[in-house]
Write a structure and sequence with these properties.
Strand content: 15-25%
Strand order of the largest sheet: 4-12-11-10-7-5-6
Bound molecules: pyridoxal-5'-phosphate
Helix content: 25-40%
CATH architecture of one domain: 3-Layer(aba) Sandwich
CATH class of one domain: Alpha Beta
Number of helices: 13
Structural class: alpha/beta
Largest sheet: 7 strands, mixed
Mean pLDDT: 97
Order of helices and strands: HEEEHHHEHEHHEHEEEHEEEHHEEHEEEH
Distance between the termini: 37 Å
Low-confidence stretches: none
Shape: globular
Number of strands: 17
CATH superfamily of one domain: Type I PLP-dependent aspartate aminotransferase-like (Major domain)
Length: about 375
């Protein structure tokens, strides 16, 4: 049996699958088991920010694997110490500590728990079309009813308000609100870009109500939107920030960054076995250093602006709107996106959906201008065909 048949036989069945078997990657390129090459605008759902098999990350992982792979947080560790210092050094101002975890959902879980712990309140406000992950707490704050419904009852005390609507937020905020959780750009929800006034005033409303602001930068973090964190576009000062995806060059890792208004975190209140393991920390340290050395946020900003201009020149009736910030780009179609993703794959370009009608691009930030031109040409052919 080949890999496809073996997976079909033994996999859980949770995932819609595409009919290719990926076996190798380098930079923004992937290869399948037949040796066919693809330009990757999926990046493992936005993970491969520094490119596939980034040499600096590979070297750090190899070295650390020969030194120490696991070490729980009850002991101190040299690489973890360095990683924490580096992570906090690039975080938005006011975020001065971090809990290290293993995924985006787990980072969101941590942020929700810390918000409840710190405020002594139970209520959480989230936004419509949000995505915060699939574990029970994170899922409670995720909007998409198809993801939520089969698992109800979820966490009590969660309300969803329209993204961008300050009146609705004002109305929802009460004496029992622990926090608002919000994305600066909604990723899975369709690449919906938050406005400065909305986000800044939302922060002000939270503080006035004694609630905390949790910003979910799991998808927008680490240069994706043209700044190291999307918060920086709007001078936001979140109390808690969830990050993951690109944090460690593809090695599973997440973190909750913790601000000075968060109280009551004492030994024993929360934890996770794999959190802060030296292997992930070594990968994370190498990935962040690479982002800084190569100014990946700046690259994302320049390349993203070029892509938006190029895509804007496509004359295709099927395009409803093009939205983007840095290299987080959504093309909203007047049709379902799935057939177009399939056609792009046949052209050697891998892209993502965001909801039913948005074609989403999350390429590695190291993607070359030539590769981006090839991607845009393929998109033009596919959207103007037939
Ligand atoms: C992907 C994502 C998550 C969930 O991360 P996982 O690692 O899949 O658990 C949470 N929030 C946002 C904004 C995401 O894009």
């Amino acid at each position: 049996m080949d890999a496809m048949q073996t997976e079909q036989r033994y996999t859980s069945g949770c995932y819609p699958k595409r009919e290719i078997t990926i076996v190798r990657g380098e930079g923004a390129r992937l290869w399948d088991d037949a040796g066919r090459e693809y330009i990757d605008c999926v990046s493992g759902h936005g993970v491969a920010i520094v490119g596939h098999c980034n040499p600096a990350v590979v070297e750090a992982v190899c070295n650390q694997a020969q030194t120490l792979i696991t070490c729980p947080e009850v002991f101190y560790n040299d690489v973890r110490a360095q990683f924490l210092e580096r992570l906090v050094s690039i975080a938005p101002p006011g975020l001065e500590r971090a809990l290290l975890v293993n995924s985006g959902a787990e980072a969101v879980e941590g942020a929700l728990k810390f918000a409840r712990l710190s405020t002594g309140r139970a209520g959480i406000i989230a936004t419509m079309r949000s995505f915060h992950g699939r574990t029970m707490g994170a899922l409670s704050t995720t909007w998409e009813p198809n993801y939520r419904k089969p698992f109800e009852p979820l966490l009590p005390g969660v309300t969803h308000v329209p993204y961008g609507n300050l009146d609705a937020l004002h109305e929802a905020l009460g004496a029992d609100t622990a926090a608002l959780i919000v994305e600066v750009v909604q990723g899975e929800g369709g690449v919906n870009i938050g406005e400065s006034t909305y986000l800044q005033q939302a922060q002000g409303l939270c503080h006035a109500a004694g609630a905390l602001l949790i910003v979910d930068e799991v998808q927008t973090g680490f240069g994706r939107t043209g700044r190291m964190f999307a918060c920086e576009h709007h001078d936001l000062r979140p109390d808690l920030m969830a990050v993951a995806k690109g944090i460690a060059g593809g090695v599973p890792m997440g973190a909750v960054l913790i601000g000075e208004r968060v109280e009551s975190i004492r030994p024993g209140v929360h934890g996770t076995t794999f959190g802060g393991n030296p292997l992930a920390c070594a990968a994370g340290l190498a990935a962040i250093d690479y982002m800084l050395e190569h100014d990946l946020p700046g690259q994302a900003q320049r390349k993203g602006a070029w892509v938006l201009e190029r895509l804007g020149a496509i004359d295709a009736r099927v395009i409803r709107e093009i939205r983007g910030l840095g290299l987080m780009i959504g093309i909203e179609l007047r049709a379902r996106v799935t057939p177009y993703l399939k056609a792009l794959m046949d052209e050697g370009v891998l892209a993502l959906p965001a909801g039913r009608t948005v074609l989403r691009l999350l390429p590695p930030l190291v993607i070359s201008e030539d590769e981006l031109a090839t991607v845009c040409d393929a998109i033009e052919r596919v959207l103007t065909a037939g």
